Amino acid sequence: MQSDARKTALQILIKIQAKRLPLDLVIEDFQNTINTMDPKDRRLMNAIVYGVLRWRSRLDRVIAESSRTPLHKIEPRIRDILRIAIFQIIYLDRVPESAAIHTAVELTKFISSTRGAPGFVNGVLRNVQKVWTKIYDPPSETPFIQRMAWKHAIPEWMLERWTARFGEDRTEILAQSVNRIPSITLRVNRMRTDMENLQGLMDEKVREVSPNPWINDALDFSHPEGAIDRLPGFRDGFFQIQDASAQLAGLMLAPRSGERILDACAGYGGKTGHLALLMQNKGEITAVDLNGSKLMRLTHEMQRLGVNIVKTQTQDLTNSKAAMNLGRFDRIFLDAPCSGMGVIRRNPDIKWNRDEEGLKNFALRQSKLLETMAALLKPGGLMVYAVCSTEPEETTEVIDHFLAHHPEMHREAPGARFPDQARTLLTEKNDFMPWQETFELDGFFATALRKTGRRKVVAS
Ligand SMILES: C[S@@+](CC[C@H](N)C(=O)[O-])C[C@H]1O[C@@H](n2cnc3c(N)ncnc32)[C@H](O)[C@@H]1O
């Protein structure tokens, strides 16, 4: 019988590759299967999926060196099986080489009807041990960009733009950091419990639990014993998982009890839960997303947290006319869809699913969303524009372009709710822009924009 861990890992990798779908969405699709796995299998499955995506181009180099068939001519599903096996041989000490090869051959029989496929996989993998140590690291004379791409498994186009912006030294640190496995951060639900109680509950089920240095009411931890929803206090709504960067962006909006808030692009409700907490569950939050099934999950999430001030609406917010049906808001959080290039360490598929053209398309969509938000914000109101990226197209350039066309909107420094210790993460213009390589935070961008008056219509 084929091990569930490897089979599920393979199915996830095939789906990501074939449909260019984001890892988190694909994992969602497999959640029922994952929930039935025992913790050991689930850990192995996670290690394989994330490991293969993290090191993909390096693993492919080993395949190319070990196979007589050129890499691009190998059937994509067989390529994924080879990547899974090579990842185990190189990175997972606990898996003997023979087991990695045997399970790869079994997987091949399971998914391929091509007669020679199992023999081909067996033959390639028998060569791996001989070749991988010779070619895994680049020769020292390799030019910088190619050396970084080889060593850290990062596409050259990303390294080129980072090197042009930051120089070689910082790019190297950034390249290393995107492959580090980050700790997980949770936000304590103060309506249900407190830090001390939750830390006590967590202590036995996770490792390295400690208060997050940037923000109050947040705990960092690693190596959860099982799935997050099995951790103590989860079912009781004691916490929500959310990186400190995203929490700091929520504090920039600083919503108050009784206000009318729009959570635009609300997704599964990470920000919604935080905003409701800041409002002490008093007032009204309208959570909007293009994806209705995400909003259904958001509704369950709010029930779990004990939040009852949220109503949801499935809507395309790039259509500013249609959005007027939502009414006007005191504050708006726009968590815009983006490349996610600040969170590669959590979503390593982003390395292989993005290109420069795509950044321009994101920027166009972000600009349209900002236009809608400008119309929905009450005079005197505040909005926060946020993306989990630090690429200029999606951050400063989008905002500078927007402000040039909206004299009624102004950047504003975060208010008193923003923690003092995090002010070092603000730029000269008061944009919040932490760097993942320096601060152990997700790469992020958020800016607060105040609407100071009505927009003047200029006669042409
Ligand atoms: C960055 S994610 C939101 C994450 C969420 N706010 C959270 O904290 O968990 C961006 C969201 O924008 C949604 N989206 C994309 N295009 C949209 C549009 N035109 N109108 C409304 N929502 C959109 C996506 O479905 C996705 O859920």
TrEMBL record:
GO terms for cellular component: cytoplasm. It catalyses: cytidine(967) in 16S rRNA + S-adenosyl-L-methionine = 5-methylcytidine(967) in 16S rRNA + S-adenosyl-L-homocysteine + H(+). It comes from the Bacteria. CDD domains: AdoMet_MTases. It is found in: Cytoplasm. The keyword S-adenosyl-L-methionine applies. Keywords: Cytoplasm, Methyltransferase, RNA-binding, rRNA processing, S-adenosyl-L-methionine, Transferase. The active site is at residue 388. Its main location: cytoplasm. S-adenosyl-L-methionine binds at residues 289, 316, 335. GO terms for molecular function: RNA binding; rRNA methyltransferase activity. Residues 174-452 form the SAM-dependent MTase RsmB/NOP-type domain. Belongs to the class I-like SAM-binding methyltransferase superfamily. RsmB/NOP family. PANTHER family: NOL1_NOP2_SUN FAMILY PROTEIN _ ANTITERMINATION NUSB DOMAIN-CONTAINING PROTEIN (PTHR22807:SF61), NOP2 YEAST -RELATED NOL1/NOP2/FMU SUN DOMAIN-CONTAINING (PTHR22807). Specifically methylates the cytosine at position 967 (m5C967) of 16S rRNA. NCBIfam families: PRK14902.1, rsmB. This is 16S rRNA (cytosine(967)-C(5))-methyltransferase. It comes from Desulfobotulus mexicanus. The gene is rsmB.
